[in-house]
Design brief:
Length: 79
Amino acid sequence: MMSGKSCSGSKVGWWLLLIGGLNWGILGLGYFFGKMWEWNVVHMIFGQWLWLEALVYLLVGISALLLLWGCKCKTCKAE
């Protein structure tokens, strides 16, 4: 989890990971109730615009990579 100072990019990344993780958790719950694809929150919100839905998934993936490698900016290094 984030501790201390972090840059805006890291904060946005954490929020995107939280949203993505919750979406996958809700999607998994939908699988057990037999309505797997009806519980995809990102699709419910952005389903009309497929490019925007794909962009959200891309940003969540980039956020995961940022978490793996860590942010190298001056603000995050100061911790």
